[in-house]
Predict the 3D structure of the following.
Amino acid sequence: MSLKGRTAVVTGAGSGLGRACAVQLARDGAAVAVWDLNAEGAGETVRTIEAEGGRAVAYVGDAADRAAIEQTLARIRADLGPVLVLVNNAGITGFKPFLEITPEELERIYRINLMGPFFLTQAVIPDMLAAGWGRIVNISSSSAQTGAVGMAHYSSSKGGIIALTKTLAQEFAARGITVNNIPPGFIDTPMTRASPIDVDEIAAISPMKRAGQPEDIAAACSFLASEAAGYITGQTFGVNGGRVIY
């Protein structure tokens, strides 16, 4: 699934799902902008890509801040060219009873998980419109599909991502741009391991009896970013080991 000659941006690419997606898109031929707040993690992702013969550049900045978005995109365009593939992966999680969630906590999780992808997509789409081709892959969450006790702020922010995906897909379908979202199930990442969820225990009662791996998400991302997925848009492309089936 060649992306040769195209530039891809992956946010939150310094570890976990973002790193796996960045590495896979580089294998597919894209020049990858590895965007993360963690300079060390972003650098490690770039080194992994370069060790395989791919092309990548690390960019450190807040992908949920409008000014930082414009500044970082200007650097990416100067270094790698117009952005034709965007993976909105950066995000944070949260676990707290609904009645205890503060306005500050709600605002922070919405700013990073929903407003950041909204503003970044706004800033990137003109490149895609000019090219008459674009691929946007949003990382949502299976918690947005099922609901999740103690995660009202997180699951609702990711539900907004699913709604945003559907809306943008309709608005830009005739312009050569596809917009889809992947809601991961229980994926074994550093963020998941740092949460109060027992990944192994929950995976053991799932249909596949195992946790997913970041590479499982990266494979779906690779497909949705490819020419082969040109007639797929507005879809929630579940990669969850059978946790959510409908």
About this structure: The chain has one domain: 7-229.
